[in-house]
Specification:
The chain has helices spanning 2-19, 25-28, 41-52, 54-57, 71-79, 82-87, 105-116. The protein is mainly alpha-helical. The longest helix is centred in the first third of the chain and has 18 residues, at 2-19.
Length: 122
């Protein structure tokens, strides 16, 4: 009886552990709910920048000399490559956010698509 109980619990443990293998949502559903096609500055890009960058990169911040506040300043960072290089943690750029986790793949895709679409101010 004990041997049978051990077999049943072992079987259940294997099934449960195997079921957790693919629980990473971005791997299961790439671009699921990610509005990376034709993102707009106001609706898609700005909220990402406000939530993840303004703590250090707001005009007048003592934490950084680089301001990303306002379309023109963000556009300049996008045009010179520093915005995308930093958020992608590319070689030669200071990885951002500096004291936080890398932005999600979805947020990076939104910003990259916005840049590739000509950095529209819409």
């Amino acid at each position: 009886m004990v041997h049978r109980t051990i077999k049943i619990w072992s079987f259940l443990a294997v099934i449960l552990l195997a079921g957790c293998y693919y629980d990473v949502e971005e791997e299961l559903y790439p671009n699921n709910g990610c509005a990376s096609t034709n993102p707009s500055y106001a609706s898609n890009v700005l909220p990402i920048i406000e939530a993840n960058c303004y703590a250090c990169h707001k005009t007048g911040s003592v934490l950084s000399s680089v301001s990303l506040e306002g379309y023109e300043k963000l556009k300049a960072a996008a045009q010179n490559g520093s915005l995308l290089g930093s958020i992608k943690h590319a070689s030669g750029y200071s990885p951002m956010p500096q004291s936080g986790a890398k932005l999600s793949d979805c947020n990076i895709s939104i910003i990259e698509s916005w840049i590739n679409n000509g950095i529209p101010n819409n």
